[in-house]
């Protein structure tokens, strides 16, 4: 929290992803371990500083090195502090956070809300019903993170779920104009099921597309090759194989795509069709902003994501980032209960729409 000289209080929340330490990420973040470091090393960077620009304030922590390790500070610290920086600039200028981003990065605040991607957790049936009732634009994530128990040793359980979800939408949607995108995260389990045979995976995904019809299908993390270089090559090849088959199914990159530089590399190599910009993994939110803009400028679909392990505050700030940069979709967060995360993202975007032309 920053106390400004006009009496306003700006704040952000430090948070790390649910799968900390996996896929090349920073280790587990425990607040009690890092609060002393923040008080000793981070707070002095800002005490008495003039509030001129978000970019300048964000760089103070995002580019700083921990003197004891010589490395950048933990992503969670940079994530939360830069949220507070953005809020401080917005409060000092009596503007919305989205407006500050638009001014400093040369964008326009969107005139409509950004598509919200809802995540079900393991309760993928009951929660899908909630999503359909709310007419969520993208659904359901579904957490297919175990090859035998969830995906099926031949992919049969995932296929059955896609068929069920298709039928459920068709049965219970209240208007024919509601045509959500199916976006399912499989956590590399297709690679395990098909022994990383990309041709077999592409064929399976093409068949899955038929089961999802008439709805568009996205598969996040079809394989996890264990390192960044191999992951880029696999997703690039898989994209080529799908396109040769005439498939419209899209691949979403996630694991091993953790930093702004990673996102640039995946994008330039066409490793997938969409990149999840996993906001806490990028550290400062300035990096998430730049990542969305880089993807859009280089023919890659941008998904402003994150993790269920965030807070209402970080979700609100991300709604401002989404409205200022216009990614194709943004994640409903925190949690996996649907209602809460969707409500936070939806309501904050509605507030931005109501206020953006009045401030």
UniProtKB/TrEMBL annotation:
UniProt entry tagged with the keyword Kinase: no
Keyword line: Lyase, Magnesium, Metal-binding
Pathway the protein contributes to: Amino-acid degradation; L-glutamate degradation via mesaconate pathway; acetate and pyruvate from L-glutamate: step 2/4
GO biological process, one term: L-glutamate catabolic process via L-citramalate
GO terms of molecular function: metal ion binding; methylaspartate ammonia-lyase activity
InterPro entries, per the entry: Enolase-like_C_sf (IPR036849), Enolase-like_N (IPR029017), Me_Asp_am_lyase (IPR006395), MeAsp_NH4-lyase_C (IPR022662), MeAsp_NH4-lyase_N (IPR022665)
Top-rank taxon, per record: Bacteria
Domain Methylaspartate ammonia-lyase N-terminal, chain residue ranges per copy: 1-106
Cofactor: Mg(2+)
Residues annotated as domain Methylaspartate ammonia-lyase C-terminal: 109-356
Record field: catalytic activity: (2S,3S)-3-methyl-L-aspartate = mesaconate + NH4(+)
EC number(s) stated in the UniProt entry for this protein: 4.3.1.2
Subunit structure: Homodimer.
Family: Belongs to the methylaspartate ammonia-lyase family.
Record-given protein name: methylaspartate ammonia-lyase
Source organism of the structure: Bacteroides reticulotermitis JCM 10512
